[in-house]
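Changelog note: in this version the structure field was regenerated for every chain. One regenerated record is shown below for reference.
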Amino acid sequence: MEQVRSFFQRRYIDCSDQDWLMIAPKLIRREFPKKTLILEKGQVENYVSFIEKGIVRYYIPKENKEITFELTFADDFIGAYDSFLTRLPSVYHVETITQTTLWRLSYLDVQSLYRETAAGNIIGRLASETLFLEKAKRELSLLNDTPEQRYLNLFTEQPDLIKKIPLQYIASYIGITPQALSRIRKRIS
């Protein structure tokens, strides 16, 4: 749990002891085995979660394939945030790639922390802004960068963890086929 508080302090705000005493009891620690659906398409997202360890992917199931559109690593937030905010069913799955440990806050607890703590309100706003900026960066990368650049960016940002992600997920994430990814990998090695 201290990892969560340390993350808040490094990235967002120095959380007072009084605010932390209100936040900490609401955090629920959950461990998920590798390849576990945290949220299925059609369910409403009831949690915003912090990844203590592990890798999570977001994907859209299609008839003959899956389209991975997000990969999230330790020390970051996850959740179908659009579903969380709108209270509408998700149109995609959220799944662990590796064994994953999450610290979760329920929708009702998040709303309560927004009302009752200054830190909760600030963390919520800054976390939302961060999610928006990451989404914009990803969209711009898909529009402007070559698949090779997208692969190299992912490799640069997460060099150790990318080795744990199956190649078909990486290929889908950067918008190419596994065969095209193999050609890129041969070219740059």
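Spot check on this record: The beta strands are 28-32, 37-39, 47-53, 55-61, 66-73, 77-78, 93-96, 100-106. The first strand starts at residue 28 and ends at 32.
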